[in-house]
Amino acid sequence: MLRRRTFRTAVLGATGVALAGGVTAFASAAPAHHTPSAPKPTVVLVNGAWSDAASWKSVINRLQTDGYPVVAPPTGLRGVSADSSYLASYLKTIQGPVVLVGQSYGGTVITNAATGNKNVKALVYISAFAPDKGEDVKTLTAKFPGSQISNDPDAEVPTALTPVPYTKADGTTGVDLYAKADQYRNLFLSNRVSGRTAAELAATQSPAAPEALGEASGDPAWKTIQSWYLVSKDDHVIPPATERFMAKRAHAHTVEADTPHAAQVTNPGIVTDLIKKAAATVH
Fold this sequence. Notes:
- InterPro entries: AB_hydrolase_1 (IPR000073), AB_hydrolase_fold (IPR029058), Sec-Metab_Biosynth_Hydrolase (IPR052897), TAT_signal (IPR006311).
- Residues 1-20 form the signal peptide.
- Helices cover 40% and strands 16% of the residues.
- The chain is of the alpha/beta class.
- It starts with a helix and ends with a helix.
C-alpha cells in the first residue's frame, strides 16, 4: 500500500512538474507586448479663392492611405473675418492635435483661425498668404513684381477677374469675383494640365467677395505656432519673392519647388510630403 501511494505521488509530482514546465515554456513563447503608437494628428485642409475643397482630392487620398484623419471644410470666401470665424468654430469640434493647411487665400484664413487654439500644433502654407496684422491679400500680391492676376496695378478689380453682381436677401447688391475661364489654366496651373482639365476647374470655381482680397488680417497664428511653407517657383498669382518674404518672416520650415500656384492639384506628392513633415513633429 505504501509502495502504491509512493508510486502515485511520484507520478502526480512528475506530471505537475511537466505541466508547470509546459506552462512556463508557453509563457516564454508568447509575443512581447508592444505599446501602440500614438494616433496621428488630424489634417485640416483649407482651400483658397477660385478653387474649392475638391482641389485637395489627390492630397487627401495620399494622407488617408498613410492613416491620417483628414477633413477639408469649404471656405466661404466672404471675407477674412467671416471665413476665419467659421473655421475657428469648426476647429473646436476636432479632438486632439491638428495640422492646419492653407493654400493661397486659405493661408490668410488659417493665420487668423488658429490664433489662440491650443490644439493646432502646426501650420502649413502651400503657395499661400501668411499675412501679418493689418496686411491684406491685395497689398501682399503687389509687394513684389511677378503676379499675372492683373496687368493694371491701379485697377479696382484685378484684370484676370470678372465681377458678377447679385442681389442679397436684404435687397442690397453684392459682388462676386470670378477668375476668367480663358486665363484660368495659365494663372493657377501655369499651363501644366490639359485645357479640358483647366476648363473643368474653372467651371467649378468658388468666387470670392472683394472683402476676401481687401480686408485686413488680424493677429497672426504663425507668431506662436510652428509653420512650414511651400514656395512655388512658377506661381503666377503670388510672386515667389512674396512667398519667400512671408516664409522667412514666419520662420517657417521652407521648401521651394518648381510648382504652380495650385500645387495641390499638379504636384500632390510634394504637398503631401510637406504636410507629413509637419505632422511628424506633433506629439
